[in-house]
Amino acid sequence: MSRVRAKALVAVWLFTSCASAGAQAQTTGLEDLVGARGGQAEGELQRRGYGFIRVEKSDDRSYTYWWSEDRRQCVTIATMDGRYASIQPTLPPDCRKSGNLRPNPNYTQRPATRPGSGYPVDPGYGRPGNDEGPVVDGRNVELGLVCFGDGSKDGIASGTTWTWNRDRKRYEYGSYTTSKTEVFDASLMVQTWNGGGRIRLPRSLVPPIHSGGQDGWWDLYDLFVSPDTIRATYRLNGFNKPKVTIDRRSGRISVQGLSEYGFRGSCDTIGHQQRKF
User: Fold this and answer.
1) Cβ-Cβ contacts under 8 Å for 185 (sequence gap 6 or more)
2) What domain range includes position 10?
3) 34 or 119, which is more confident?
């Protein structure tokens, strides 16, 4: 199951749990830690009653699972570039707890406030236009996005099986190879500046034969930016030039290339109120 679909199931579970308990949905009490440096914030997680359960790693981030016995709450923390990128509630089984557990309806403690020292959030974390923001070839990045979703591409499946030999009138055991569509969780990044931009692809979206790409980044061509839409293309190889479309109101992004190559997801940044970014 993809992480995006899992989030939808989590939302349904939380709504049902809180409604049956007759209480309002709880927060995780960790919202203010988004942007904190991961290593320094672990002590604060423990101070707030969360214990480490396990960790998973992907191309460009890691996911740690923490459990609060008082809240009866499991959370997933995504860490990118050493900082907490997101903190989301998830199902108890993700923390190796019984699926019958429900959030504690009697837990009323308000979310803790961050101590005044130790691991302050970088004021420019994820904020375009900051004086210390990224610079690409002498150009200040005007918009930086981190996008999470589902990727897909053509793949090959192989194995062994029994097949019918019509000439010999019998079943024979042998190997096979066939094409298939691979679907996987993925994330990518987009940066734009005046007159240009680039996109950073996860390894899962880079085919064995490709052209371009510097440190995982591909230049964007035919970039079009309006108040509501961003459109561009990038050259994956001589045949495949995927199109990128971003809805700035909803934050949704789509990447469509040849055959099954593509990506669908949503993008995050710190920005405006009328649009997603």
Assistant:
1) 2, 3, 4, 58, 148, 149, 150, 151
2) 3-95
3) 34
